[in-house]
Design goal:
By secondary structure, this protein is an all-alpha fold. The chain has one domain. Helices cover 57% and strands 0% of the residues. It contains 8 helices and no strands. The radius of gyration is 18 Å and the shape is globular. The model has no long low-confidence stretch (mean pLDDT 94).
Length: 187
């Protein structure tokens, strides 16, 4: 799925605890997007594509380095270390990472029809590959509908709770956004 979809779904997971703090919500949300850090190899791949020795970092490593049990353990551990409410944050961060993996299993088929399996047990074993033969296209209507629903849920949460994903960047921007939503959709 699209990283934007992963972001908003992870934001929803981060809001599972009504008394969470801004910091905990940010940690959990970023944990849910973290598996796609292995997709940053696309920058090197594009920049070197016309050279004599192109780098295939995205082709070779996306859905490999960050999409496995070791990466989930590392991200969950970092989340726990960064949080004051370690257990709750770690559990929700782990859930967000695994939701990311599940979403990629069901909705990450490439435009050429190629499916991206998730090598879940790497680096310990390559024997298990998560794949679903009904995998939706990355730009399929299902992913678009999920993204719209997740963004809509973020609006509803912002209206009800007084904070939105913008709080991760700026409390001022968050306050302006929440005020605008509340004025547009009064009780």
């Amino acid at each position: 799925m699209n990283p934007i979809t992963h972001f908003f779904l992870s934001w929803g997971v981060a809001n599972a605890l009504p008394n969470s703090t801004r910091r905990h919500r940010a940690i959990i949300t970023l944990a849910g997007v973290a598996p796609d850090l292995d997709g940053l190899g696309i920058v090197a791949e594009v920049l070197t594509s016309k050279t004599q020795q192109p780098l295939h970092w995205w082709t070779d490593y996306h859905h490999v380095l960050g999409h496995n049990i070791l990466a989930a353990i590392v991200v969950t551990s970092i989340a726990a270390l960064l949080a004051s409410s370690r257990v709750h944050t770690a559990l929700l961060a782990c859930l967000a990472v695994h939701l990311h993996l599940l979403c990629d299993v069901v909705g990450a088929r490439g435009p050429d029809g190629d499916q991206w399996p998730i090598p879940y047990l790497l680096p310990f074993s390559s024997s298990v590959q998560w794949m679903w033969h009904g995998q939706w296209a990355l730009n399929g209507w299902q992913n678009i509908a999920i993204t719209i629903a997740a963004v809509g849920a973020a609006f509803v949460l912002a209206r009800r709770r007084g904070y939105s994903p913008l709080e991760m960047v700026s409390t001022r921007a968050n306050d302006v956004f929440v005020d605008a939503i509340r004025k547009r959709f009064p009780l």
